Amino acid sequence: MEAVLLPEPLRRSLSQLSQTVFSPGGEKELGCWIGQESSTSLTLQMCLYFNLYYFPFWWLSEVIMLEVKYHVLSTYYCIILCMIIFLISLVEFIRIYLGYVGNLQQKVPELAGFWLLTLLLQMPMTLFATCNPRLLVLPLEYGVNIIYLIMLGAEVVLAFTTLRRMALQLELRFHITHFDSLEESRYARPTSSKQLTDTVMGQMD
């Protein structure tokens, strides 16, 4: 039995969003994917793999730098920085999990959730922690945050292209299934009045 990765209402909302944002541009673009079995992105999977191993180093660096400048920062910015590190750490585990499942199992809602978390939460919070001068950003923080932002930017682009491929392939499968069902229904019923008459007479006999 397949485990439920996301609540069903959320899955439906993400599926509708994916159909709206990543819908194919036309029949010519749709025809390019005929015969392709998988839409999984190897490059995206490599980014997720490196991200998974890089994040503990990023987290350790941020905690050490927070300890170094904790007594210099005001209480207000200490609370903000602690909340940013906590939220980024919490979202990161969910984000990486959704990215792995969505990419490897070709699940559009999960991969769309990964894309939205990366674009709307991780990147803005990391940019705020990097570019706000009142947080007294140290050189080590600049370095680890820039590398992390490069990874996030690459994942946003790769997830977008992968979602577009998945949406194209899903629409292609829908068209093929619909065409096959029409063909089956056409051959299932008599194709001429003579065949229809023969069928009725045979039933009467």
Can you give a write-up of this model?
The protein is 80% helix and 0% strand. The longest helix has 50 residues, at 139-188. The chain has helices at residues 8-21, 27-31, 42-69, 75-104, 108-131, 139-188, 193-204. It is built from 7 helices and no strands. Helix 4 (75-104) runs antiparallel to helix 5 (108-131). The chain is mainly α and 205 residues long. It is elongated and about 75 Å long.
Which properties best describe this structure?
mainly alpha
TL;DR?
With 205 residues, the protein is mostly helical. The chain is built from 7 helices and no strands. Helix 1 crosses helix 5.
Helix-strand blueprint:
Layout: H1 8-21, H2 27-31, H3 42-69, H4 75-104, H5 108-131, H6 139-188, H7 193-204
Strand content: under 5%
Class by alpha and beta content: mainly alpha
**For the CA atoms, what is the radius of gyration?**
26 Å
What is the overall silhouette? Answer: elongated
- Number of DSSP-assigned strands: 0
Helix content: over 70%
Number of helices: 7
Distance between the termini: 50 Å
Outline the low-pLDDT stretches: 26-35
SSE string, helices as H and strands as E: HHHHHHH
Report the biggest beta sheet as strand number plus sense, adding barrel if it closes: none
Query: How much is the average pLDDT?
Result: 79
